[in-house]
Amino acid sequence: MIEAHPATDDLVNSLVGQLRPVRRNVVPLRLALAVIAGGAVALIILLALIGARPDLVSVLGSRAFLSKTSYMLATAGVSLLAASRLARPGSGTKVLWILPIPLLLYLPVGIWELARTDSSEWLAMLLGHGWQLCTWLVLFLSVPIFLALWWAFRKFAPTNVEAAGAVAGLSAGAIASVVYCLHCPTDTAVFALVWYTLAFGIAAMIGSVTGRYLLRW
Length: 217
Known about the structure:
The chain is an all-alpha fold. It has one domain. About 70% of the residues lie in helices and about 0% in strands. The protein contains 9 helices and no strands. The protein has helices at about 5-15, 25-50, 55-60, 65-85, 100-115, 120-125, 130-155, 160-180, 190-215. Helix 2 (about 25-50) packs across helix 8, helix 4 packs antiparallel against helix 8 and helix 7 (about 130-155) packs across helix 8 (about 160-180). The chain is globular. The protein starts with 5 loop residues before the first helix and ends with a helix. The mean pLDDT is about 85.
């Protein structure tokens, strides 16, 4: 029979004695705080540097604007849900299957737009106004949101830091795109499916790479 060493018992007892129960809702609360703080900073930057679109009030209720914004909000929602799962130690990556759902639901809207528009106007729908800057401005606005999410994740214990970083980057890009919608003058689904989705992909890749270093514990 092997007897336990007293020093080992003391070490185990000291570690167990320091354990404190973690509130069940601590992960969503911390993520929500990060989203609010980072989103507020992104909104301030947007209004200070480029401002809102002049016709914002008149388009808020339009079908195209609401459809575009819903795509951004849905992407933010599913990515934050995935982030909350991956924030917990031992979580698998099966939750990642929900990430393409907003894109798949919004894609028929873009196809319908193309189908009802003469092909000579497709390029104009794709480029819209400001396509050269759209993706990069969304990425720029996502920086404070990603930093806030990184702050949140530093208190979590993700075991797959690359996947956690990717969904954090995707979340930051999607939330930033909601903010940028207040300025973007182009509301076509084709425009959003290309340039906003490109921003989401780049943000996710950046998050995955940086997650290896920022989210390690």
